[in-house]
Amino acid sequence: MYKEQVDMTRVPRHVAIIMDGNGRWAKARGKERTFGHQEGAERAHDIMTAAVKLGIDYLTLYTFSTENWNRPDDEVAALMALLLKHLEEEMFMKNNARFRVVGEIERLPKVVQDAVHYLEERTKNNTATCMVLALSYSSKWEITKAVKEIAEKSKNGELNPEDITDKTIDQHLATNFMPDPELMIRTGGEQRLSNYLLWQCAYSEFYFTETYWPDFFEEDLCKAIVDYQSRQRRFGKTGEQVENKK
Known about the structure:
By secondary structure, the chain is α/β, with parallel strands linked by helices. Helices cover 44% and strands 14% of the residues. It contains ten helices and six strands. Helix 3 runs parallel beside helix 4. The two termini are 29 Å apart.
């Protein structure tokens, strides 16, 4: 139903998703949390394929936050094993999709780091959707890292503090290779950003759904995009200014 309603001329270039609800989805079925994560990984494949069909340039998925390192060791180990299993070259090549990662990659197990770097290199010349995994990522880590880099350049005389602008910060963020997300989706019923793309979401449209991530399919993505397309994006201007510009 919603798929037919999507205006293909106004699809957001960048959609970011907080994939929430895997554990609660599994618990509701009397299963272990890892069962929910397994199903959630399958859904990530499905949504990437849907993004390619829709012509979305960038799809960023909040996969593992820096705070997630505080989870029980067995759950973290299971998540790392699941991640390694689902970094499938064939899926990306079949969809002509690219793969990138943002986050503290050096904290990941070496075998996962190697798999990530291999897949990034293998898919870099593909031309369809770029699926970006936020792995061992948090906005506070990212912004702190950017501030340190800018401060170091200023100390070394490479950058005049008076010349620092928001674009300077953009250039030093881990996400500097892609535009800010026009649409931010969070599944699972919670309504917060959870330390995710805080700087980049300054003017993103937010879409919250009660649907748990393992139950979020292509039709749900299309529903979110249709909702996004019904909104007027003003960027601080009045509605009349936006209308008159058309």
